[in-house]
Amino acid sequence: MTAQPILSSAAVAASAAVSDPAVAHRTRTRTVQVLDHSGVPLVDAPVTVAQEQHEIGFGCIGFDEVYRAGRRLAGQPFTPDEDALFERLDALWFDLFDTATLPFYWGTFEPEEGMPRTAALRAAAEHFVSRGARVKGHPLVWHTVAPQWLVPKPDDEVLRLLRARVQRDAAEFAGLVDTWDAINEVVIMPVFTKDENAVTRVAKTVGRVGMVRLAFEEARAANPAATLLLNDFDMSADYEHLIEEVLAAGIKIDALGLQSHMHQGTWGREKTLDVLERFGRFGLPLHFTEITLMSGEHMPKHLDDLNDHRVEHWPSTPEGLEQQAQDATELYTTLVADERVKVITYWGLSDHGMWLNAPGGLVHADGTPKPSYDALRGLIRGQWWLAPTTARTDEQGRLQVAGMPGRYTVEVGGERTEITVGEDDGVVTVAAR
Predict the structure, then answer these.
(1) Residue 130 DSSP code
(2) Most buried of 75, 342, 399, 400, CB within 10 angstroms?
(3) DSSP label at 301?
(4) C-alpha distances in Å from residue 203, one per residue of 191, 212, 386
(5) Alpha helices of 281-413 — where are they, by DSSP H?
(6) Cβ–Cβ under 8 Å, residues 328 and 376
(7) Positive or negative, the Cα torsion across 286, 292, 298, 303?
(8) What SS3 class is residue 13?
(9) CA distances from 70 to 66, 91, 124, 146, 259 (A)
(10) Residue 40 CB neighbours (<10 A)
(11) Beta strands of 245-303 (E only): which ranges?
(12) C-alpha span between 317 and 240 (Å, rounded)
């Protein structure tokens, strides 16, 4: 981006402030004191300010990178067309998102007992972290995609192995992956009947709260610095009751994960606000962990399990593409407007490999952005983002930086300093050469 014209210091705050009235209340201001090399305030000095990252995590899954890493480690080269597509998708990912969710489904992460695919997941995590992105692991405990080799084992051995799995992976990836869905979809876990799995079997005995305790306590012991989520798709009162029981049992939850796969119809603003109020009452940070919006027909509403809808071809439609862009704009604006929301994760950049073959990506399978991608980029990197802006310090050598909370850089006299804009409103000092 090119820097905007030089502004007066009084105009910096206005130029950096969020222009969208729906989320303008999230704007924060930080005073910057600019000094020369001898510690004297620099008056009327040009200073360039730019935003580097939002405090809010704008996320997407990074599953493609795990596949790529696995292929590379196995010495399986890509075709030129595959390479070109993946590079295109990677560029689109980083041009919009800054928080990656990586797949740690036990059954695919460790398809053979004692042979976890640690190297591929580590390479993928490093790919994102090296580019400044944050990484979350999904999930440590879940009944679906559980290892089949676990099924014949007695319950006490299943629980031992489950504890060991949580300890191993939370510790192994500490420093790279410090946010986890500690346990996924507990509401349905003890009564799940779609397949035979050992995790559901032990959950019937241990109970929901017992399973949550296992996941959280083992993960926290392995990585005390981790942010641990309770994550679920069930937005009914059943999930609220589970949260109440877990908190009453003294289990520390760092954030609540709220899934919102909208294959059967878009929630709309009214339902989104209802979910925010019902789960916001617990006073915990809210992470919208799994968002999917359709750019084609919605699946039948009578289906209780989305996995029951299996089609070979599920195309986007012209009307669906425009509706997806409108839905994405409304949903993200509603979520960002609520200060309890800390992370918003879309569940798939591209239709390439999309769950259920659904047209739920923000990008077509060939790597061409949909209107929804452009709409979200216009919000996240446009209206809610401070592009490089140059202003002059006042008579005290100060200027105001205002914008959405996050990381910013301040450049003066060729010297670049990183600052944060957020709840800390104290004066931050930067020095020129």
Answers:
(1) T
(2) 399
(3) T
(4) 9, 10, 48
(5) 318-337, 371-378
(6) yes
(7) negative
(8) helix
(9) 6, 20, 9, 20, 28
(10) 9
(11) 255-261, 286-292
(12) 37
Domains of the chain (ranges; CATH) run: 4-54+388-431 (2.60.40.10), 57-383 (3.20.20.80)
Tens of pLDDT, residue by residue over 105-154, are: 999 999 999 999 999 999 999 999 999 999 999 999 999 999 999 999 99
Separation of alpha carbons 220 and 170, rounded Å: 8
Q: Closest Cα to residue 349, out of 311, 292, 306, 299?
A: 292
Give φ, ψ of 220 to 5 degrees. Answer: -70, -35
* Residues 225-251: tens digit of each pLDDT: 999 999 999 999 999 999 999 999 999
Strands (E) located in 296-372: 341-346
Cβ atoms 3, 390 nearer than 8 A: yes
Calculate the alpha carbon distances from 332 to 56, 325, 404, 414 in Å.
11, 11, 14, 37
Report which secondary-structure segment, H or E, holds 199.
Answer: helix 198-206
Tell me whether the omega of the peptide bond preceding residue 139 falls within 30 degrees of 0, making it cis: yes
φ, ψ for residue 28 (rounded to 5)? -125, 155
